[in-house]
Specification:
The chain has two domains: about 25-105, Orthogonal Bundle (Arc Repressor Mutant, subunit A); about 115-153, no CATH class. It has six helices and three strands; from the N terminus they run H-H-E-H-H-E-E-H-H. It has helices at about 35, 45-55, 70-75, 80-90, 120-130, 130-140, and strands at about 65, 95, 100-105. The protein has a three-stranded antiparallel β-sheet. Helix 2 crosses helix 4 and helix 5 (about 120-130) crosses helix 6. The longest helix is centred in the middle third of the chain and has 13 residues, at about 45-55. The radius of gyration is 24 Å and the shape is extended.
Length: about 150
């Protein structure tokens, strides 16, 4: 006798069985750990788009030859955003670039974690600390009294 399935069971059967994906010709892949180990979460949207395009364009060793103009057009990025995304992917050890070609690298053991520099000066706090910024905004709107020693006294 079969045991009853939980009402929360999700079938693994295809939804559209006549459209099951098959490998035909070349294939691109991204390891599951790209998502499950935090690599996906550490990338911003331009970095993700560029990384995905490089994965799709790469040969079996991860090499692709797309130029800047083609990458900018396909990723819908201006040259500055493209360069920032490319440099971030290099810094995060996900790709290599020699000026003419790219290589999508095997994933490192863990995602690159960029530590934010410590906030030290008043200027650092005023520019980067949400609590300080909120206080300054409230003071400028007259919603709180200025802090002691401020220029408003």
């Amino acid at each position: 006798m079969k045991t009853p399935r939980s009402r929360f069971h999700i079938s693994r059967e295809p939804i559209v069985s006549e459209r099951v994906r098959r490998v035909d010709g070349g294939v691109a892949f991204i390891e599951h750990r790209f998502l499950h180990r935090g690599f996906f979460a550490q990338l911003n949207q331009p970095e993700l788009v560029l990384y995905l395009l490089l994965v799709l364009a790469a040969d079996r060793r991860g090499i692709s030859f797309y130029g800047t103009d083609a990458l900018c057009a396909l990723c819908q990025l201006d040259p500055d955003a493209y360069r920032a995304a490319r440099n971030a992917l290099i810094a995060k050890d996900l790709i290599a670039y020699d000026g003419r070609r790219f290589q999508v690298l095997s994933l490192p053991d863990r995602p690159f974690i960029q530590r934010e520099p410590a906030l030290v000066s008043d200027e650092d706090f005023e520019a980067h600390d949400p609590a300080t910024i909120r206080t300054l905004i409230r003071e400028s709107l007259g919603l709180t009294a200025p802090k002691e020693g401020s220029a408003d006294e």
